[in-house]
Design goal:
The chain has 353 residues and is an alpha/beta fold. It folds into two domains: 230 residues, 3-Layer(aba) Sandwich (Rossmann fold); 80 residues, CBS domain Like. The chain contains 18 helices and 13 strands. The strands form three sheets. Strands 6-7-8-3-9-10 form a six-stranded mixed β-sheet, sandwiched between helices. Helix 8 runs parallel beside helix 9 and helix 16 crosses helix 18. The longest helix has 18 residues. The C terminus is likely disordered. One of its GO terms (molecular function) is ATP binding.
Length: 353
């Protein structure tokens, strides 16, 4: 069962509700959103549908103005859809009263913002426990749970520090700890790492993936960075001009782009860090199955596979969970998938280095 579902969701901003409703009907009939803009209405999200499974990191990515942040704000009820439904745990958020929606937001959905949103007059522990304070959790339990969340985020010992004493990455960890402390079922992360320097950003991505292996939260992550989407996302939705133009895994999008827009979007992605052996393997070859050369698993990234291929005189054997050979990867096929068939075989060693 899906934790979160969007069913044919539209968000149109117009002068009057009637204008927005008419715009949805026009869009359903095939109108372009540029046509609507001339009438004073803006179609921010158009016919968005997707499912997010429990424990999945679902990434929504697109350039500025694509509608991804508007979509996120509908997922927790900050914006009401003009049409369509948002289902959370089978419950239709669009049908809840204002009080019921506030309760869901305060207990079941947490948000991690782009610019930290920490209170400068509260210390780290108080910031991490703020969501619990809103819920009315007694102070001793609030501080215990906040301290546990900070420890998970690598901030043990910093509880009494002030936000301005922390680096940007540490402040973002406090924001993440605040979301985790409430034990919410769903985390919404809106460009949460985009304000950080590249090295700190990658550290935060590592931190999130490590936490996810332990906590298995359901996460919707918004980003404009394709490499970040490919690194984090179990599932990815690519948005353009308010519409979701492709959904799938990182491998689906890299190997089977839906249109020229997606193809141009992914052309600079480092495939060796995203694709894995199962994306390139062929049937087992006898030479790969009959020697003691190094092998790889189906989930081995191509960058690591290149290092093995450079040391093996034949196709690299790919093994399953039981150790049996399930496929093989010839070096010429590996080079082709990385994206440059004209480079000599030494390229694999260069990628691995």
């Amino acid at each position: 069962m899906s934790t979160l579902q969007a069913e044919h969701v539209y968000k149109v901003f117009g002068r009057r509700p009637a204008d927005s409703a008419a715009a949805v009907r026009a869009l359903e009939s095939g109108a372009d959103r540029d046509e609507l803009r001339a009438d004073g209405t803006t179609a921010a999200v158009i016919d968005a549908s997707f499912d997010v499974r429990p424990g999945q990191i679902f990434v929504v990515m697109g350039l500025s103005g694509s509608g991804k942040s508007t979509l996120l704000r509908m997922l927790n009820g900050l914006l009401e859809p003009t049409a369509g439904r948002i289902l959370f745990g089978g419950q239709d958020l669009t049908a809840l009263s204002a009080g019921e929606l506030r309760h869901v937001r305060s207990t079941k959905i947490s948000m991690v913002f782009q610019h930290f949103a920490l209170f400068p007059h509260r210390n780290v522990l108080e910031n991490a426990g703020y969501g619990l304070e809103v819920q009315g959790v007694p102070r001793p339990e609030r501080e215990r749970r906040a301290a546990e969340a900070l420890a998970l985020c690598g901030l043990e010992g910093w509880e009494k520090s002030w936000p301005d004493e922390l680096s940007g990455g540490m402040q973002q960890r406090v924001g993440l700890a605040r979301a985790l402390a409430t034990d919410a079922e769903l985390l919404l992360m809106d460009e949460s790492f985009s304000a950080l320097d590249p090295l700190i950003r990658r550290d935060m991505q590592d931190q999130l993936l490590e936490l996810q292996r332990t906590l298995k939260k359901t996460i919707v992550f918004i980003t404009h960075d394709l490499n970040e989407a490919m690194r984090l996302g179990d599932g990815i939705a690519v948005m353009r001009d308010g519409r979701i133009v492709q959904q799938g895994t990182a491998e689906d999008i890299l190997t089977r782009p839906a249109d020229d827009y997606v193809a141009s979007f992914i052309q600079d992605v480092d495939r060796s860090r995203v694709l894995t052996a199962d994306a390139v393997m062929d049937d087992p070859e006898p030479a790969a199955d009959a020697c003691d050369c190094p092998t790889v698993t189906a989930g081995t990234p191509l960058a690591e596979l290149c290092a093995v291929s450079a040391r093996v005189p034949h196709a690299v054997a790919v093994t399953g969970a039981d150790g049996a050979v399930i496929g093989s990867v010839p070096q010429d096929r590996l080079i082709a998938f990385i994206g440059d068939e004209q480079r000599p075989p030494m390229y694999c060693a260069e990628v691995a280095a």
